[in-house]
Specification:
The protein has 535 residues and is α+β, with helices and mostly antiparallel strands. The chain has helices at 3-20, 36-43, 48-54, 96-103, 152-157, 159-165, 167-188, 230-238, 276-294, 353-361, 371-380, 391-402, 456-471, 482-489, 502-510; strands at residues 57-70, 73-79, 84-90, 110-119, 125-136, 193-194, 200-201, 213-216, 221-225, 243-251, 263-272, 350-352, 411-414, 436-441, 444-451, 495-501. It has two domains: 3-142, Beta Barrel (OB fold (Dihydrolipoamide Acetyltransferase, E2P)), CATH 2.40.50; 169-199 and 232-349 and 409-517, BirA Bifunctional Protein, domain 2 (2-Layer Sandwich).
C-alpha cells in the first residue's frame, strides 16, 4: 500500500468513527457570519483591549491548513482561499461532538468554528472557539508544500487545490473578474448594448483561423465552433443597433503555447458612424482606465503599470501563424521584456507598420515598397518567408520578427496590408493598406481593430481572394459568407470595431507568463486513469 493510499484509508476510518458517533460528516448547511478574510479585514486593526471590550462573537467557516497541538490546547489555521484566521481551541471547552471532531481532524477538512475574537500573547488575531462543527471531511490530503510545487501542470489540472491554498492564484481571477466588470461598465455607460451571438455556426467566419467541427444530429448538419463573433455583430449594425459588444468565448483548433489556448475569451465592440481613429481612442481610454481601476487590487496603487510577462519561451509546435481580424495574432515569441513597469498613461506611441520596421528593425524604407525587395530582406536576414509570398504577407513576416519583440510599452501599430486584413476598409490614399491598428504591450498583441469594410462588392472580392488562398493550401483562409454579403447589400453604416483579448490583458496586468495561469481550467491532455469517464 502506498503512503497516499494509507492516508486515504486513515481518513476514511476517521470519517466512519465520526459517523458512528452521530456526527454529521457532510451537513446540509452552516449558518455563518464572516469568512476568515472578512474577519481579518474588519477586525485586523483592533487591539486586544478593544476586542475584549467589544466581546465580538462570530461563526466562521473555512478549510483547516495547519494544526498545532500544545497539551489541551490546539491552534488551527482556518483559510478561505484569501486569508487565514487562527483558531484557539481548548479541548475541555468543547462539547462532546466538537471534541470528537477535533480528535479526528485532518489537514484539508472544512469546519465551522464559533467563539470570541481575541489577540494572543504574540498579538495574533484569533478566534477562541468553544464550538467546532465538521462541514466536510477531506478524504485526500492536500499536496505538501503546495506553494513550492514544481509540477505546474498539477496546479492547472487541480485548480481547486491551487485556489484553496494559494491566495496569489485567487487574486489573479479576482483581477480578471474586475477587468470584465470594468469593461462592461465602460461600454454600458457609452451606449453600447451587450448581446450574444451563436457559438455554433454553419460557417467559421470573422477571423483567419482553423475551427473545431461538430455535428448536429437532429439536423444532420456539420457545424463549426465560433472562431470570432465579428460577422454576426456587424449584422446587428445592419439591423439598426448602432453600438454593440460581446464578451465571447472563441475556439480555434491550433497550437498551444504560453500565449495560446484553444478556448479563449475576447471582447469585441462595434460602433456605427465611427472609424479606426475612434476605436483607437476608446481602446486607449478603456485599457488605461482599467489599469487605474485594477492595479490597486495588486498592491500597486499609485503606480502606472505592472511588470510585463516573461517571453513566450514555451511555444509548442503548431502555434497559429495568423489569426487576423479582431482576434489576436502572434507568430514568434517576443524577446525578454524589460522588467521595468509598464506605463499606461495616455497618449501611447503610434507607428505605421513600415515606420516601425525602420525604427525598430533598421530596415531601409526604400526596401519596404515592393515584394521583391521584401523577399531579399528576409533572405538577407535569414528569416523564413511566408507560404503566401505576396507583398502584405512578406511585410508582416518582417514585422513579426523584427518589431514585435520591441513593443514592450503600450504601443499602437497602424496601416496593415490589405492581404492580411480581409474585413478592413482600405486607406483612401494608398489602397495597399487598410485603416487598421493593433495594440501591443509586454511584447504581445492585446487588441486589434479597424474601420469596417461595408462595400458588399469589395467584401465579396476579398472573400474570393481568401478562397483562392485556400486553394493554394492556406487552411486558415476565410470562407465565403454569402449571407454576410447579402446583409451588407442592405446597407451597413460606416463603422469601427475592435477586439481585445481578455486572457492576455489579464496576463499583462498580473504579470503572468502563461495564458494557463489566467484561465481557470485550461485544456490539458487527459490523465491515463479515467481519461474518458471510466470508473
Amino acid at each position: 500500500m502506498s503512503e497516499l493510499d494509507e492516508q486515504i484509508q486513515n481518513r476514511r476510518a476517521k470519517r466512519e468513527r465520526l459517523a458512528a458517533a452521530g456526527v454529521a460528516v457532510y451537513p446540509h448547511r452552516y449558518d455563518w457570519d464572516l469568512q476568515p478574510a472578512e474577519v481579518c479585514s474588519r477586525y485586523g486593526d483592533r487591539t486586544a483591549e478593544e476586542l475584549d471590550a467589544a466581546a465580538v462573537r462570530l461563526r466562521v467557516p473555512g478549510r483547516v491548513l495547519a494544526i498545532r497541538e500544545h497539551g489541551k490546547t490546539a491552534f488551527l489555521d482556518l483559510h478561505d482561499g484569501r486569508a487565514k484566521l487562527q483558531l484557539l481551541v481548548r479541548k475541555d471547552q468543547l462539547a462532546d461532538a466538537g471534541r470528537l471532531v477535533l480528535e479526528n481532524l485532518d489537514l484539508g477538512d472544512l469546519v465551522g468554528a464559533a467563539g470570541l475574537l481575541l489577540r494572543t500573547r504574540t498579538g495574533e488575531l484569533s478566534l477562541r472557539a468553544d464550538d467546532l462543527t465538521l462541514l466536510a471531511k477531506a478524504l485526500r490530503p492536500l499536496p505538501e508544500k503546495w506553494h513550492g510545487l514544481a509540477d505546474v501542470e498539477a496546479r492547472y489540472r487541480q485548480r481547486y487545490l491551487d485556489l484553496a491554498t494559494s491566495p496569489e492564484s485567487r487574486r489573479v481571477f479576482e483581477v480578471r473578474a474586475a477587468l470584465v466588470a470594468g469593461i462592461r461598465e465602460f461600454l454600458d455607460t457609452r451606449g453600447f448594448l451587450e448581446v450574444e451571438t451563436p457559438m455554433m455556426q454553419v460557417l467559421a467566419g470573422g477571423a483567419v483561423a482553423r475551427p473545431f467541427r461538430t455535428h448536429h444530429n437532429a439536423l444532420d448538419l456539420d457545424l463549426y465552433l465560433r472562431i470570432a463573433p465579428e460577422l454576426y455583430l456587424k449584422r446587428l449594425l445592419v439591423g439598426g443597433i448602432p453600438r454593440v459588444y460581446e464578451i465571447n468565448r472563441n475556439f480555434r483548433n491550433e497550437g498551444i503555447s504560453t500565449r495560446h489556448n484553444p478556448e479563449f475569451t475576447m471582447l469585441e465592440f462595434y460602433a456605427a458612424y465611427a472609424d479606426c481613429g475612434d476605436m483607437i481612442g476608446w481602446t486607449e481610454e478603456m485599457v488605461s482606465g482599467l489599469a487605474e481601476r485594477v492595479l490597486p487590487m495588486l498592491g500597486t496603487a499609485g503606480t502606472p503599470g505592472v511588470p510585463p510577462a516573461p517571453p513566450d519561451s514555451a511555444t509548442m509546435p503548431g502555434s497559429p501563424e495568423n489569426s487576423e481580424t479582431h482576434g489576436t495574432r502572434e507568430v514568434h515569441p517576443p524577446a525578454a521584456a524589460s522588467q521595468s513597469a509598464l506605463d499606461y498613461r495616455r497618449p501611447w506611441p503610434r507607428y505605421g507598420v513600415r515606420e516601425a520596421l525602420t525604427r525598430f528593425g533598421g530596415v531601409d524604407p526604400a526596401r519596404l515598397e515592393d515584394a521583391a525587395a521584401l523577399a531579399e530582406e528576409l533572405s538577407a536576414r535569414r528569416l523564413p518567408a511566408p507560404p503566401a509570398g505576396g507583398y502584405g504577407h512578406l511585410l508582416m513576416a518582417l514585422f513579426d520578427h523584427l518589431v514585435e519583440p520591441h513593443l514592450t510599452q503600450p504601443t499602437f501599430i497602424l496601416d496593415y496590408p490589405v492581404e492580411v486584413s480581409p474585413l478592413a476598409k482600405q486607406r483612401a490614399d494608398d489602397p495597399r493598406f487598410t485603416e487598421r491598428f493593433e495594440l501591443y504591450a509586454g511584447g504581445m498583441e492585446i487588441a486589434n481593430g479597424f474601420s469596417e469594410l461595408n462595400d458588399p462588392d469589395v467584401q465579396a472580392d476579398r472573400f474570393r481572394q481568401q478562397l483562392a488562398a485556400r486553394e493554394r493550401g492556406d487552411a486558415e483562409a476565410h470562407l465565403f459568407d454569402h449571407d454576410y454579403v447579402r446583409a451588407l447589400e442592405h446597407g451597413m453604416p460606416p463603422a469601427g470595431g475592435t477586439g481585445l483579448g481578455i486572457d492576455r490583458l489579464t496576463m499583462l496586468f498580473t504579470g503572468r507568463a502563461s495564458i494557463r495561469d489566467v484561465i481557470l481550467f485550461p485544456l490539458l491532455r487527459p490523465e491515463a486513469h479515467g481519461a474518458r469517464g471510466e470508473p
